[in-house]
Amino acid sequence: MSLILNPTASPALSPIAAMDAAHSVHPHTNLRRHLEQGPSIITRGDGIYVEDEAGQRYLEGAAGLWCASLGFGNARLGAVAAKVMTEIGYYHNFRSASTPAAAELSAKLASFAPPGMDKVLLQCSGSEANDTALKLVWYHWAGQGQPQRRKIISRLGAYHGTGAVTACLTAKANFHTGFGLPFDGFLYTGMPYHYRHAHPGEDEQAFSSRLAAELEAMIEREGPETIAAFWAEPVMGSGGAVVPPAGYFDKIQAVLRKYDILLVADEVICGFGRTGEMWGSETYGMTPDLICSAKSLSAAMVPISAVLIGERVFNGMMAQTDRLGSFAHGYTYGGHPMACAVAHEVLTIYEEMDLIGHVKSVEPLFLAGLAGLSDREYVGDASGVGLIGAVEIVTDRATKAMADAALMARIDAATRARGLIVRLVGNRVALSPPQIISAAEVQEMFERLGLALDEVFGAVR
Ligand SMILES: Cc1ncc(COP(=O)(O)O)c(C=O)c1O
Question: How many domains are contained in the chain?
Answer without folding.
Answer: 2
